[in-house]
């Protein structure tokens, strides 16, 4: 935790009153987004509850490293993501223990990037899908790909904010997002076909 | 009727851009389309988009699809409120 947050570990003077004030004003308004992020990462209600609680308690404990006026939501998401990786991912119930590095290497290989990658999916078919079907397609992605889509498309973070939350360069954000969306299209295509929307 | 007062109309053919049915820059165009939809495109990418997107059928279709998927993710997926019990526990713990 301390290592992951090191770049923001500048000391800001907080009185006890200010700690509570900043916590309530800057952090609490994001609790619904944090809960949804936690749930989509862990895919488990109890784990999501614990993850949100742990994140907020850490945020309070390390509040002196939060600089007022900076993006509190991104700061909180970064703590949650780090807690997830350190504490929850190991016991994640996700069946696919995908070696992420391997996936990314495969997708980043010259062969893959040269391929004119297309999924035969029409916008009309996507429009027919209901929220649960879209959510299921998203949930079927390996967690690292799922994460970039959640951050970008559901939570509306910029690439720069995502780079900070995930501790990766912006170029990697772009390419990971691109590949995540291609994978998502494949999943959506399967749903659309199984529902008969794409015939 | 004075013919000189009527606005000469351009032949239909000349107004229509020539539509491309195949995109030879598919991978690059997909990156630009996504950057545009994410509001992260560079000026050069925006220029390229403005100049070319209405002439390429595969790119127009891709734009529609990507936008539709993004909108579905943004608007259709249910957002749950954080359970009150979590809020209560957090507040209790930071006050103890």
TrEMBL record, chain A:
List, for all copies, the residue spans of the domain called RNA polymerase sigma factor 70 region 4 type: 133-182
Residue stretches in coiled coil: none
Asked whether the UniProt record includes Transcription among its keywords, one would answer yes
InterPro entries listed in its UniProt record? RNA_pol_sigma-70-like, RNA_pol_sigma-70_dom, RNA_pol_sigma70_r2, RNA_pol_sigma70_r4_t2, RNA_pol_sigma_r2, RNA_pol_sigma_r3/r4-like, WH-like_DNA-bd_sf
RNA polymerase sigma-70 region domain: from which residue to which, for each copy? Answer: 30-93
Molecular function, one GO term: sigma factor activity
Q: Superkingdom of the source?
A: Bacteria
Record keywords: Sigma factor, Transcription, Transcription regulation
Q: Does the keyword Transcription apply?
A: yes
Kindly list the biological process annotations in GO that this record carries.
DNA-templated transcription initiation
* Family statement: Belongs to the sigma-70 factor family. ECF subfamily.
Give the protein's recorded name. RNA polymerase, sigma subunit, ECF family
State the taxonomy lineage.
Bacteria, Pseudomonadati, Bacteroidota, Cytophagia, Cytophagales
